[in-house]
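Re: that backbone. Tokens:
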């Protein structure tokens, strides 16, 4: 029986040591008991495993063991357990990252493509992706995609197309159009696979992990982080990319209330980013200490460690390079939000003033949505006079932004929830 996507069913268990050990040993009795302890009824477990409840009880009580390959496959597919965890081939629903054994990703890139990518990245960091989306799609369609049909093309053409498709996804996400972003990321991954570029594939998986998290799907975010880490292990050393993937794994675990997993992943991210960096891959997004500090602050916030969230948000702001207006704004929002969780309203007002210095022309619907979230969180404190004055200024700022971003706001019902 074909099931709808069920990535959420095993959320919180894919990184559980007991669960992983049981999967490795194909101890389905323990797997079923752990699922049952997570609140899944025996009826649902039996249905998804394709067995009767009586047979399920035999497995859970240790009277029988699963031996048929078909049942292992049904369990993997029903609960979205990656095939490798049960000693199976990659399942049909798993995003596939194909790289020939021992093959290094093509890192030669057309100079014009690289120049265009650099220009788009710099403009995106400075002014947001909202007004760049059309230009990126136009470059992808008119300059890159038409070369894909050339019988003499090289693999790097597919890599370039994948990189620009991924960038279009980020521009769509920054415009609040997350469903469109998801489609771009899916196409980007297909192109990266066609190029045999494992590092670009891993980079796209990291982007998909971020998007899943923004859409309220921590299990999907964790899944994509695992896909990316598997892909990056097949290519040349890429410590910054590995660090980014571990950071996304930590973010997903923090939201899923798995603090131990989140802390271990953050430790790995900091460790990997501290390694000597190899030559930059032409299509892999930069990930530096400011980026890691920003992701760490968010993970700490979601784990309820608000003092640590403040510390890392301040570090992200301090390390943020000139010209990264969106990153600076997002880190300032994280800082103010962490102070709000700490119920330090004086700090909220103090650092909120810095947030109001954000260039109102920054074309990022994502930033506008996060500011709206912050406003909703602070309204309960408006009886405090300094807070009431700050909210009035924030409202004035939001109105100005709404007018400037009116043509970018997605239609009602499209994009991510705010």
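Recovered sequence:
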């Amino acid at each position: 029986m074909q099931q709808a996507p069920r990535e959420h069913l095993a959320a919180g268990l894919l990184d559980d040591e007991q669960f992983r050990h049981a999967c490795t040993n194909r101890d389905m009795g323990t797997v079923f008991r752990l699922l049952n302890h997570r609140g899944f009824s025996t009826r649902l477990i039996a249905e998804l495993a394709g067995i009767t409840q009586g047979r399920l009880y035999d497995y859970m009580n240790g009277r029988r063991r699963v031996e048929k390959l078909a049942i292992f496959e049904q369990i993997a597919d029903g609960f979205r357990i990656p095939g490798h965890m049960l000693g199976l081939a990659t399942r049909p629903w798993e995003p596939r990252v194909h790289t020939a054994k021992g093959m290094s990703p093509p890192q030669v890139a057309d100079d014009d493509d690289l120049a265009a990518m650099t220009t788009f990245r710099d403009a995106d960091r400075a002014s947001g992706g909202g007004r760049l989306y059309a230009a990126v799609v136009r470059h992808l369609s008119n300059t890159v995609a038409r070369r894909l049909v050339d019988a003499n093309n090289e693999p790097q053409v597919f890599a370039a197309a994948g990189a620009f498709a991924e960038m279009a996804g980020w521009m769509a996400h920054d415009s609040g159009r997350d469903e469109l972003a998801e489609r771009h990321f899916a196409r980007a991954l297909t192109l990266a696979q066609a190029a045999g570029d494992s590092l670009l594939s891993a980079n796209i998986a990291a982007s998909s992990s971020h998007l899943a998290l923004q859409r309220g799907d921590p299990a999907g975010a964790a899944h994509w982080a695992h896909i990316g880490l598997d892909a990056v292990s097949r290519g040349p050393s890429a410590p910054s990319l590995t660090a980014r993937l571990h950071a996304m794994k930590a973010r997903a675990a923090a939201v899923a209330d798995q603090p131990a997993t989140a802390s271990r992943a953050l430790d790995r991210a900091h460790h990997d980013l501290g390694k000597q960096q190899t030559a930059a891959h032409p299509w892999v997004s930069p990930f530096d200490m400011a980026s890691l500090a920003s992701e760490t602050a968010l993970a700490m916030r979601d784990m309820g460690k608000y003092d640590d969230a403040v510390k890392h948000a301040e570090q992200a702001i301090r390390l943020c390079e000139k010209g990264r207006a969106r990153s600076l704004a997002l880190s300032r929002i994280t800082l103010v939000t962490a102070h709000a969780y700490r119920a330090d309203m004086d700090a909220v007002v103090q650092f909120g003033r810095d947030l109001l210095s954000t260039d109102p022309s920054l074309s990022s619907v994502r930033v506008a949505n996060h500011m709206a979230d912050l406003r909703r969180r602070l309204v309960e404190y408006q009886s405090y006079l300094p807070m009431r004055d700050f909210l009035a200024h924030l409202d004035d700022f939001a109105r100005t932004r709404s007018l400037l971003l009116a043509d970018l706001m997605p239609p009602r019902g499209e994009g991510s929830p705010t």
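Confidence is low (pLDDT under 50) at residues 1-8, 97-105, 412-418. The CA atoms of residues 17 and 323 lie 43 Å apart.
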